[in-house]
Each structure stands twice: as structure tokens, then as C-alpha cells.
Amino acid sequence: MRQIINLNHKWAFSKESRELPKTFPKNWVFVNLPHTWNEIDGQDGGNDYYRGTCYYAKRILKSKLPEAERYYLEFCGANSSAQVYWNGECIGGHDGGYSTWRVELPKVLQEENLLVVAVDNSENETVYPQMADFTFYGGLYRDVHLIAVSDSHFDLEYYGGSGIAVTPMVQGESAQVRVQVFLNSVKRGQSLFYGVQDKDGNTVAEAVLNADCSQVTLEIPNVRLWRGRKDPYLYTAYAELRESGAVLDRVSARFGCRTFCIDPEKGFMLNGKAYPLRGVSRHQDRLGIGNALSLEHHREDMDLICELGATTVRLAHYQHDQYFYDLCDERGLVVWAEIPYISKHEPQASKNAEAQLRELIVQNYNHPSIAVWGLSNEITMNGSDADLLETHKQLNALAHELDPTRPTVVAAVSMCDIHDPYLKIPDAVSYNHYFGWYGGDTAMNGPWLDRFHETFPDLPIGVSEYGCEGLDWHTSDPVQGDYTEEYQAHYHEELIKQLFTRPYLWATHVWNMFDFGADARNEGGENGQNHKGLVTFDRKYKKDAFYAYKAWLSDEPFVHICGKRYKERAEEVTKVTVYSNLPTVELFRNGESLGQQTSREHFFYFDVPNIGESHLKAVAGTQTDECVLQKVDVFPEKYRLKEKGAVLNWFDITAPEGYFSLNDKLSDILETDAGKQLFTALVGKLNRQGKGEKIAGFTVGADMLKMLGGFTVLRLTNLLGTAGISLTKEELLALNSQLNQIAKS
User: What's the Cα-to-Cα distance from 276 to each of 264, 504, 657, 669, 709, rounded to whole Å?
Assistant: First the structure.
């Protein structure tokens, strides 16, 4: 019978060693898994986190292992490539940092064995992701197991899968459940016992077949459907390989019975009814921990997403931990699962994209929460060519070959032309739009989507990313690009009203649920992070925008006063925003009512006299929330954005009245002929390849400049850090001097 031994405890680790150890290295650092070597330098900015090969070593005693005919090592995540050595001999390896993979141990084991794993997260032209706006943490950052099995067993080498694939088909009041297994070294006389159990462990269907019958269809009468957040009911299918009455091996998988489709007019349909997918995206890392998460971390993330009221989560931009998919099954979240084919198409890595897609589907096929397979994200940043299109056609065909039951999707970058043939390959499309942050304004989002829907009424359209940065900076007059919590809240108020009132959108996913590590970023005053999260990187603070979504999506009654971190205010009358999913809110200041408001949009705005100390209390039904404001004479500088280690700060910049400076928006500057000429020359100067208008390999054309137009030039130069480009203080001052010569129209 199969036995699984966890190997997470006490590994010797070295970042300095440059050669394979021949004996157990007692002088290395001892670590427990999950482990990453980038939990600090991958989150502090500078784009200088260590990327290279590190070694993990562990002693394995044969006498400590269970008796078995065959042994396998299982790695649930090793980023990005790994090689496994057993007593100095390479016995296997893997390319791709986010999926499960296994290697078999030699037939003959010594009493004391040395296991060494070389893990490498350095740049690689043949392994995805190539480049992206997040940190590629290196390490054995998920569990490692040893699996002991008999010679005949359910296959452990079939793309890291569980050895069982369950396909439920709902037919009226019952469900036909096809159970397929994958076997290794089956012998004559062996048999397979199949069964399905309900949530209470009662057997509802079973069958016995010869071991050469690797597929069976069982019927569940009076089936209970998996209904998303409303009722995520799960069954369990199992298969046992038996010989002479003894169980040699057993596998099982939880599954849910449901039907779903994506209707280009009605959106996502679950069990024949409209089921709007409104939710968030998630990265898997944390402050000071990186991607080496515990089960408690995963559960906390799930609790926060469910508190928000989300019905869907996009697990970006790679395969996540199996435990989190299990939680999605249990809690009823509909999942967009995808591979790290992102930002940059590299022909030499196409085979790796196919391999990672195959692993994603085989390993996650049984999860009822997964509704779509994501083929790529923002892959047309540099345009689409014949090889990119062919790769997508192959990926799309592979996805449908492996799983005919689920549609495919892509997440298109904002400036991707809606007529691009790349958008016609998958079954559905979503766009990453940041109108109101990187460029344009918030009002552009809904009309853009309406134009797409009108042009292609039969192609389902959604929004795969939208959001803006929000940190602990504050203002009473929020503006685009100021990084305040107030502008982030305003942005999401506007996007919620536009997106949630368009039922044809098959799914919308906020970017992002949590702040996350992006070591190349140098912005917002806290370098090394992307701050578009609705919750802070350490999960300790829910930003105001979090409650805007809770007001629209959650059924749990609540009321929330915004701006609690913005306590000291200078104006005579200050605006206070309140969010609630209840229809009516009353606000009190020092016990005196400031009025009662009713809103169908769940957002309530009060003008509050700012005199001395104000104790505010919001009341909605039986729910209350409180905060304190303090009148000050001068706006506190602690609330104003300050760069951390900035090459140049906004207050160092000369800005003659009537003329441009680095503190002006790019879009305003580009409206002038002189501004266009200046930035055309600048793009050419930054071009690392010496031809065309490219920066870090990406075409910088009118569409990209328009998308980035909402930023000041100073903010934009900081963003160049994500492309590995930095300007000196002298270069920035020289650019500012040139801008000072261009008159505003």
C-alpha cells in the first residue's frame, strides 16, 4: 500500500557553494521547507535579488524508509529549474517552477544516501516566465515527499498528476461520472475497485473491473450540485488496485458535479443560471516570507477573499499550490488557472510553455472550482508575429485535447488591437486595462468594453486586470498617480459602478487582492513591491477599497468609515466616505447626526465639520463603525508621498509657471509638438537594441505612450526600473531643463 513521507525537515542549504557536495555538508545552513533564498532581497527594490543556483542536501537512511518495491521523490514546487542527485548521480530534473514533478530512486539503495537538489532561478531563454512584474523567488518553496509504492501502482510519472481523472456529466437529476486511471506495471490477475462517496463518506456508486479496464462510468442518482459560493458540495471518487484481495495502491480525488458555460451576452452561467464572476487575482507571496507559504497563510488568504464576497479568483500567473485549489473547491470560488507564459514571447521556450500547460491541466483536472485554462498573459506587449500565433494555436489545441470540458482564455494587454488574430484563438478573452491609473481616466473603461462587445458580439469579453497603487499616503483631493489610499478607493468606486453593471462581462478580476513582491519596482515610497493590492503585503491592513468591494459583493452586513489612517486634516469641512451593503447609513459627529443617506451604489458621502476632535460613528441597521479625526492648521507632510532612495524628489524639480517639468503628466506634454519631439528622441536614447522604438525589447509606440500618459514624467522614469533601465540625477535634471523650455498650451 502506498505510503507518503514528508521530507520538509532539516535540509542543509548553501547559496555560496559552486560544486556538488560528495558528503553531507555539515557546515551549511540548516533550513526547513518550504524555503526560498529571496524572501528579503526579492522584496526590497533595486532589481538585484539573487538569481542563480543554490544547493539543498539531505541524508536519507534506508532503515528509516517503509518497505516497498519502488520509491519516488515528489517536489511540489522548485523554482525555476532543478536537478536531483542521489549519491552523486543525476537521477532527474525539471524545468518550470510552479508544478509538481517526481523522480524515481535507484532500485538498490545504500544504508546511508545523500540527496542533493540543485535549484536555479537564473535568467533562462528556454523556461517561462521570461520576464514579468513580479519576483521569481528561488528555492524548494513547497513540500517535498518520498512516496513508497509496490511495483504495480497508479502512475506517478504521468505529468505529476494524481493518477486519476474524474469527469462528471450532469444529466437531469443524476450525474454520469467517468473515472479514468493511469497505471504502471499492471500484471495479470489484478483488479480495479472503483467507487464514489458523498460528503459524509457513504458509497453512492461502485464497480469492480479487471485491471486492464482503466476507465469506468458510474452514476450518482439524485445528484447534489456544486453551486459555487452558495453550496460547494463535493464528492470523492476512488480507485483501488488489488491482487488476491490485498490492496496494492489507492488513489482518490474530490470532485463536484456542475455545468457551466460562458455566454457572450449573459456572462458566466453556472448550472443553467447567470452567476456573475466578480473577484480578484492573487499572487502567492508574502512580506518577509516570499513564496514559501504555510497552510495557515493559504487559509488566511482564502478567508480574506471570501470576506470580500468574491465569487472568482484568478490564480496568477502560474500554477498555485494544490492546497489553495482545494480551498477554492471547498469554499466555492470559480478559478481562472494559467501558466507563466507572460509578457515576452520567446520561440525557444515554446516547448516549455506546452509542458507547463500539460502539467497544469493533468494536475488540476479534478478541481470543480477551475472553469478556464489561461494560455497567456500580456504576451503581445511587443506585438504578435507568426510564431506567437502558432504557439497559441498549439496551446489551445493541447488544452482542448487534454480537457474538452473547459474553455480557454487569454489576458490581453491594454494596447493589443481588438482585431489582432491572437484574440480569435481562445474561447474567451479578457483585457488588462488600467485606464485611470497608467493612462486615460476611469470613465474610459466601460465605453471601451461596450465598443468591443458591439464589434465582436459573439466573443465573450471580460476584464482580467484593473487597479491602481494605494499606500499609506493621504489627501482630501485625490488625483490620478498620487499613490494615496483615497485615490485608490475613488478609482475602485468608479470601476465597480462601470463593470458590475455590465452583465455581458464574463468575469472581472481586480489586480490585485494583495500587494506583492516586484523587486524591480521603485515607486510609491516603498520599493520592491506592487501596491495595487486591496490588502497590504503582510495581510495586516485592509485598504478602504477592500470595503468598496465588500459593499457590493458580500451578504454579511457591515458598515465601514473610510480614511481611518488619515486622521489629521487641515480643511474646515472634510469629506468622509462610508461604505455599506445596507441601503441606509447615518453618520454622527460627537453624538450629533449629520444626516441619513440612502444609496443603491453602496457608497455614501458626508461633509463633516472639521473642528477640534471629531468622534465619528456610522450606523447602518444594527452595524456600526467608528473613527476619530483631528483638526490641524497645516496639512501634515507625513501623509504626502516621499520616495525611498529616489534619484530625484518632486520638490527638487524646477517648475516655472506656464512651462512643463518632470512633475507634469506625459499625456499633457505629448499634446505639444515640442513635447512629442523630445520624447521621440528620449525613446531612441533609451533603446537598448539600437533600432526602432524599443525599450527592454518592447515596442514603445503611440498606444503604449497613451496608456502611460496618466503618470508624471518623474513617476514614469521610476517605472522604467521594471525594465532594467535607470536614469541618473544629472540625466533627470537635464530632461527637466528641456521640459522647462516647452510652454503649456
Answer: 12, 9, 50, 41, 32
Return the C-alpha torsion angle 70, 160, 81, 92, nearest 10: 30
Please enumerate in sequence order all residues whose Cβ is within 8 A of that of 108, keeping only pairs 6 or more positions apart, or say none. Answer: none
The pLDDT score that the predictor gives to residue 702 is: 56
Question: Is it the case that residue 695 has pLDDT exceeding 50?
Answer: no
**Do residues 362 and 322 touch, judged by C-beta distance below 8 A?**
no
pLDDT at 666: 85
Domain 568-637 in CATH 2.60.40.10? The answer is yes
Give yes or no on whether 164-255 and 568-637 have one common fold: yes
CA–CA distance, 485 with 545 (Å, rounded to integer): 8
3-state secondary structure 102-155: EEECCCCCCCEEEEEEEEECCCCCCCCCCCCCCCCCCEECCCEEEEEECCCEEC
Instruction: Give yes or no for residue 685 having a pLDDT over 80.
Output: no
> In whole angstroms, how large is the CA radius of gyration of the chain?
28
**Burial of residue 656 (number of CB atoms within 10 Å: 0-12, 13-18, 19+):** exposed
Phi, psi of 72 (to 5 degrees): -130, 145
Number of H helices, E strands in the chain: 12, 44
Residues 191-230: tens digit of each pLDDT: 999 999 999 999 999 999 999 999 999 999 999 999 999 9
pLDDT in tens, 486-496: 999 999 999 99
pLDDT cut 70: percent of the chain above it = 94
The residues facing 585 across adjacent strands are 597
With vertex at residue 123, the alpha carbon angle to CA 117 and CA 129, rounded to the nearest 5 degrees, is 95
Q: Considering all CA atoms of the chain, what is the largest pairwise distance in Å, rounded to the nearest integer?
A: 92
For every residue of 568-624, DSSP letters joined together read: EE-SSEEEEEEEESSSEEEEEETTEEEEEEE-TTSEEEEEEE--SEEEEEEEETTEE
pLDDT at 731: 85
For the domain covering 164-255, report its CATH number: 2.60.40.10
- Please report, rounded to a whole number, the percentage of residues in the chain having pLDDT higher than 90: 85
Catalytic residue among 39, 338, 346, 378: 378
Residue 706 amino acid letter: K
C-alpha distances (whole Å) from 107 to each of 62, 66, 69, 104, 362 are: 12, 14, 8, 9, 27
- Phi/psi-derived region of residue 659, left when phi > 0, alpha when psi is between -120 and 50, beta in every other case: beta
Find out whether 32 and 8 touch, Cβ atoms under 8 Å.
Answer: yes
- Per-residue pLDDT at 700: 54
Whether 378 is a known active-site residue: answer yes
What is the secondary structure of 18-31 as a DSSP string? -S--SS--TTSEEE
What is the domain partition of the chain in residue ranges?
A: 3-149, 164-255, 264-556, 568-637, 648-739
Task: Give the homologous superfamily in CATH for domain 3-149.
Answer: Galactose-binding domain-like (2.60.120.260)
CATH homologous superfamily of 264-556 equals: Glycosidases (3.20.20.80)
Which residues are CB-neighbours of 156 under 8 A, at least 6 positions away? 72, 74, 102, 104, 147, 149, 163, 184
* 489 phi, psi to nearest 5 deg: -65, -45
Average pLDDT of the chain?
94
Closest by CA to 77, choosing from 330, 429, 359, is 359
607: which strand partners?
Answer: 575
CA–chain centroid gap for 585, Å, is 35
d(CA 402, CA 693): 40
Cα–Cα distance measured from residue 261 to residue 270, given in angstroms and rounded to the nearest whole number:
7
Cell of 527: 520599493
For the stretch 607-641, pLDDT in tens is 999 999 999 999 999 999 999 999 999 999 999 98
Residue pair 295/327 in contact by the 8 Å Cβ criterion: no
Residues 354, 355, 356, 362, CA torsion sign:
positive
Tens-digit pLDDT profile for residues 311-343: 999 999 999 999 999 999 999 999 999 999 999
